[in-house]
Amino acid sequence: MHLQQQDLRLFHALPTAHLLLRPDLTIVRANPAYARLVGVPAPQLTGRHLLQVLAGDAAEVPVGGAGPAPDDAPDDRPDDRPDDAQGGVARLRRSLHRALATGEADVLPAERYPVIDLRTGLVGHRWWSSVVVPVLDGSGRVELLIQRVEDITAYVEDRGARQRQLRAEEQWQARALSAETELFARAREAQAAREGERARARELAALAEATVQVSTAEDVEQLTEVLITRALGALGAQGGAVAVRQGDRLRLSITASLGQEVQLRYAELSLDDPLPAAVVSATGRRVLLHDRAETVAYGDGAAEIVATTGCQAWACLPLGAGGAVVGALLIGWRQAQIFSPASLEVLEAFAAQCAQALVRIWTHQSQRAEAAQTSELALALQRALLSEPARPDGLEVLTRYRPAVRSAQVGGDWYDSFVSAAGTTTLVVGDVVGHDREAAAAMGQVRSMLRALAYTTAEPPAATLRLLDQTLHGLHLDLLASVVLVGVHRDEDPGDPGAARYLLRWSNAGHPPPLLVHPDGRAELLRTDAELLVGLEPSTARRDHRVALDPGAVLLLYTDGLIERRGCDLDDGLDWLARTVSGIAGGTVGGGAAGTPPRGGGGPPSLARLCDTLLELVEGHADDDVVLLALRA
Questions:
Q1: Which residue(s) pair with 319 in the sheet?
Q2: How far, in whole angstroms, is CA 561 from its chain's centroid?
Q3: pTM score > 0.90 for this model?
Q4: DSSP state of 512
Q5: Are 572 and 566 in contact (CB under 8 A)?
Q6: Domain 213-365 CATH superfamily
Q7: What is the pLDDT of residue 184?
Q8: Does residue 57 contact residue 86 with C-beta atoms inside 8 Å?
Q9: Is residue 274 within 8 Å of residue 297, measured between CB atoms?
């Protein structure tokens, strides 16, 4: 069980002797009161078996392995006979068994035990009353045992001496009545202590629940309602507020339990105001006002706070983050308060949780603001990319750009289409490695460089990509990108000047292969030997490839977001693309996600229908941006 620091402080502060035990009765912790009882420093008790503190054969048998006590074992209470100490140890073992077996508290009012002095090895006999309380985990199993011990040796020995001295019945009756009165008083004290322990347990449980719930708060208002509401239940408070410093001003988020008038009147304060929230936020020192008289006398405006809120007692604690005071936690009560050390520990723990939650809220708000800026940049880049493609005579060019679902990231995918100075229709699809603003900036650089090189030079695609490699290297631009560069040339038919087909010349730098859809609907992946990404090696050799584009044929360029899926390799994605496009071109459309059979349809598709159908099929499945560039002769 993970013990919070406030739990340990409360455990150590208990005035009665307490032990924290594992189910095998190994001592986890002993509080100072127990250490004083046995005369040994508490750290020397940690790790010992409980029954090692007791002497005799009965102490040698571990409780966890001895099995339950027999049904016929005597369970009578001992008198003051010295030889009954071993019976006390045996009855303690049975008490521990019952607590472990039932998961319920077990009480031994008075037993005589042989207690070992761990410093000298000598055995002394002590009269102890014992209460064993099991601590259950979430599944109902006993995780720890708490033993409370009260030493009544002096009382028992005194009673024995009086019994020997006063034999007369009347004197004995008087002594017995006195003892009963004393026991009754002790019982009342024990009951009060148990009630105090239960109150502390409720407060700690409320703190634990608040710790979980504040982790979901999205703003200071939600934090205030969650945290103060939990404090109300644990501490009996009426209401409160979380005050946050903003320069020399203080903004307060006040619980609805104090009323709308209070929320409006005290929504904002100056750090110079003489009110507790402002003073604590400015100085970092807590303020405790126990009753109406202390609150009214605190300063100007304090009497009005009592009148408007109905709270006469207040606790105001600083909220610290990163070594600075960022505000204050304010809690008010209708009744006067004492503010015991245990209650103050709980209040300090609430304040610590509040400060941590504030830091988390500010961090998330900053991250959301940064994500919004990144999203705006992504939209700007997208608008820049979605320029109108070139429209040369005899060719139809269509483009599509679909960002991935991850709105907080910017991709490096791009496309381009233009007619070069030499009259060549040029098509480009590429993808810069990375998914952040640096990748987006690199994409803009590569796209502009390649556009300028391809427009001004009359070189074929492979030579143009080599020039791009050398340019990136010469400018010391450390980036990598996959690119497919295509040049489209018109090829006149000498026998029929009115008829023409087109010749595609392309070079592929580590990009998925282009897809050629023949007029009969057959889809062919234009696979080539793999070549290095652009930007990796300036002297790398690159090759051109050629294929004819007959009238009615379609060339499809794309980025890997169209074909990549979690759990599937790249070849599966390419095969799916070829089958699906062939089905669409043959007069059918896809039925849904990648890999599902197409539904019946009719007619060769337009480029718009081909591209839009593909995007519909991968909707919700694409983890990356998707770029499509389609060309029809």
A1: 327
A2: 30
A3: no
A4: P
A5: no
A6: GAF domain (3.30.450.40)
A7: 65
A8: yes
A9: no
Tell me how far apart the alpha carbons of residues 517 and 512 are, in angstroms, rounded to a whole number. Answer: 16
Distance, in Å, from the CA atom of 531 to the CA atom of 525, rounded to the nearest integer, reads 16
Q: Where are the alpha helices (DSSP H) in 407-460?
A: 437-456
Give the Å distances, CA to CA, from 116 to 90, 235, 358, 454.
16, 42, 52, 94
E-strand stretches of 374-421: 396-402, 413-419
Mean of per-residue pLDDT scores for the chain: 81
CATH number of 386-566+624-632: 3.60.40.10
Half-sphere exposure of 624 (CA within 13 A, CB side): 22
**Domain boundaries defined on the chain:** 5-165, 213-365, 386-566+624-632
For β-strands 142-151 and 123-136, DSSP reports them as: antiparallel
Taking the CA atoms of residue 42, residue 43, residue 49 and residue 55 in that order, the dihedral angle to the nearest 10 degrees is -50
Q: For strand 425-432 and strand 413-419, is the pairing parallel, antiparallel, or unpaired?
A: antiparallel
3-state SS class at 301: coil
User: Among 116, 95, 112, which Cα is nearest to 104's?
Assistant: 95
- The whole-angstrom separation of Cα 483 and Cα 533 is 7
User: Amino acid letter at 35?
Assistant: A
- Give the strands of the sheet with 545-549, arranged side by side: 413-419, 425-432, 481-493, 496-509, 545-549
Taking only Cα atoms into account, the Rg of the chain, rounded to an integer number of angstroms, comes to 41
pLDDT at residue 104 in the model: 92
pLDDT of residue 577: 95
DSSP 123-163: EEEEEEEEEEEEEE-TTS-EEEEEEEEEE-HHHHHHHHHHH
Task: Give me 419's structure tokens.
Answer: 């007619």
The pLDDT tens digits of the residues spanning 140-162 come to 899 999 999 988 888 888 877 77
C-alpha dist (Å) from residue 255 to 281, 311, 315, 365 = 19, 13, 15, 22
**What's the rounded Cα separation, in Å, for the pair 201 and 270?**
38
Pick from 47, 11, 4, 52: which is nearest to 147 by CA? Answer: 11
The residues, any chain, with a CB within 8 Å of residue 399's CB and separated by 6 or more, are 386, 389, 415, 417, 627, 628, 629, 630
Q: Are 5-165 and 213-365 the same fold in CATH?
A: yes
* C-alpha distance from residue 525 to each of 190, 431, 484 (Å): 85, 19, 13
Under 8 Å between Cβ of 326 and 358: yes
Asked if 450 and 464 touch (Cβ cutoff 8 Å), the reply is yes
Residue 211: what residue type?
Answer: T
For residue 123, what are the contacts with CB-CB under 8 A and spacing of at least 6? 55, 114, 115, 116, 117
Contacts of 559 (CB under 8 A, 6+ apart): 413, 429, 430, 431, 511, 512, 624, 625, 626, 627
Burial class of residue 23, CB neighbours in 10 A (0-12, 13-18, 19+): middle
The answer to whether 318 touches 285, Cβ cutoff 8 Å, is yes
Count of Cβ atoms closer than 10 Å to residue 80 Cβ: 14
What does the alpha-carbon distance between residue 194 and residue 426 come to, in Å, rounded to a whole number? 85
Residue 212's pLDDT is: 57
- Token pair 């070079």 is at which residue? 507
Write the CATH number of the domain with boundaries 5-165.
3.30.450.20
> Nearest CA to 276 among 231, 246, 247, 311?
311
192-214 pLDDT tens trace: 556 556 656 565 566 556 555 55
Q: Are 131 and 96 in contact (CB under 8 A)?
A: no
